[in-house]
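Problem 12. The chain below contains 103 residues. Write out its predicted structure in token notation.
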Amino acid sequence: MRSFGIDFSLYLYNALKMSVFSAGVILAIGALTTPLISLFVGFIGDKHGRKPVLMADLLSLPIGISIVILNHSFAALAIASALGGFSVAGGLVGEGVGHPWVH
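Solution.
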């Protein structure tokens, strides 16, 4: 079973005709934004509650996927990758990942 990163990088390379380096930069943006944004999202979650953070998280992933589907520029794909990092960070802060037995 392949991971999402491999499938997404093959999509960038084959369908969008990006270089291997550009595809790696797009994936790195998503990987680097997750821990950076999780600090910010954690602060917002502590201040305003988990529910608003998780609602923003639920809205950000479809927006990021829509950007990938509709726009093929490097800048738009970088923004979509950062939104994906926000989605992962919001799920981690809200304990949506890693602790399914707690609830």
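Discussion. The two ends are 29 Å apart (CA to CA). Students who got a different answer should revisit the alignment rule from Section 12.3.
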